[in-house]
Amino acid sequence: MANLDWTRLGFAYRKTNTILSCSYKDGEWGPVESHTDDNLTISAFAGALHYSVECFEGLKAFRGADGKVRLFRPEENAKRLQRSANFIGIAAPSVDRFLEMCVRVVKENIDFLPPYGSQASMYLRPTLIGVNPQLGVKSSTECLFLMLCAPVGAYTGGTLQPSYTVISRDYDRAAPNGTGSFKLGCNYAASLYSYNLAHKLGYEAVLYLDPSHHAYIDEFGSSNFFAIRDNSYITPKSDSILPSITNKSLETVAKELGMTVERRQVPVEELSSFEEVGECGTAVVITPVYRIDDKPALESQEVKPYLFGSKDQCGPKSLKLYKMIRGIQDGEIEDPFGWCLFV
Ligand code: PLP
Ligand code: COI
């Protein structure tokens, strides 16, 4: 096993043994290749470099209590990649090819898979880029599908460490009827200015509103939003947010735990009535939110703060949801939904 401090990994690049690649050319996919070097040679005219002909995924592998290795819902990621690729008009790998590469990359990098109990996991980053040389704005005809991985810990702070966030009213992440619901690199580029500004001001995450009205909550820059009130799990319904696989799983888990699930528009003012608020996603898992500042503009002095629970503890219902989903991923709890794929 690699000689790493598994409890201090954070979410960062780390060189592993191999990356995998598969090329699409002349209408067909070639063989899967494994490389120890993670540098690429592509044309400087590749569409990915100019017009963001790029989409990606994120999923995790876990070493279980029973010693088995599990991937969490990889088929969902395969299908979402196909949906993103379709939107930008490029070829996507089949679900089978996607799954085969997920399993193989974990096997080839098994010594980087964190041990059970470390609260760390292996993050897989499937990435699809347009590579043929081009100048005009067109969908790429040749693509490279990469399967990358890295051992990761908590995305921000520590595991279940509540976060301090701010609403962005002066910058949107996605346009109305735009790309927000697809996992495209361009959405993250669009969030960088507001994220950098918020980060400089001491916030860990930015909460974006629906870009048409700025009246309803959309999502955070790298995760979906959920709230708890009474016995309800409430999460936004919007065309401009990423359909999170974690959020969809939490809805199922919440129902299993006897909670009501509400997926609907969530007006900003409703924040004052929530008992618990959290971020959810593959990288953030569940990150409780301690505070959301609403400001007319990020740099404005005028602040309306919304506070949830304690500064250093996760709320009880969010903790219950966290334990169930992590328990399934770690093989501590039986997987009644058939979500895990064994490596
Ligand atoms: N929303 C955004 C913008 C994200 O980047 C992510 C991360 O993938 C999510 C939501 C959560 O999605 P998932 O649970 O599928 O990882
Ligand atoms: C994920 O949770 O998989 C993400 O893609 C979020 C972020 C690291 C971009």
Please explain how this structure is put together.
The chain has two domains: 147 residues, D-amino Acid Aminotransferase, Chain A, domain 1 (2-Layer Sandwich); 166 residues, D-amino Acid Aminotransferase, subunit A, domain 2 (D-amino Acid Aminotransferase, Chain A, domain 2), CATH 3.20.10. Strand 15 and strand 16 form a beta hairpin. Helix 2 packs across helix 3. Helices cover 22% and strands 29% of the residues. The chain is an alpha+beta fold and 343 residues long. The site of pyridoxal-5'-phosphate has 13 residues, from helix 5.
State the fourth-level CATH superfamily of the largest domain.
D-amino Acid Aminotransferase, subunit A, domain 2
Count of the domains? 2
Bound molecules: pyridoxal-5'-phosphate, 2-OXO-4-methylpentanoic acid
Helix content estimate: 10-25%
Bulk shape: globular
Indicate the CATH architecture of the largest domain: Alpha-Beta Barrel
**Protein structure class:** alpha+beta
Using only C-alpha atoms, the radius of gyration works out to 20 Å
The CATH class of the largest domain is: Alpha Beta
Low-confidence stretches: none
CATH topology of the largest domain: D-amino Acid Aminotransferase, Chain A, domain 2
Helices and strands in order:
Blueprint: E1 19-25, E2 28-29, E3 33-35, H1 47-51, E4 54-56, E5 59-63, E6 69-72, H2 74-87, H3 95-108, E7 121-130, E8 143-152, E9 163-168, H4 185-200, E10 205-209, E11 217-220, E12 224-229, E13 232-236, H5 245-256, E14 260-264, E15 276-281, E16 285-294, E17 304-307, H6 316-329, E18 340-342
Parallel strand pairs: 9-10, 9-16, 13-14
Antiparallel strand pairs: 1-2, 1-3, 1-8, 4-7, 5-6, 5-7, 6-18, 7-8, 10-11, 12-13, 12-15, 15-16, 16-17
Bound molecules: pyridoxal-5'-phosphate and 2-OXO-4-methylpentanoic acid (COI).
The site of 2-OXO-4-methylpentanoic acid has 5 residues, from loops.
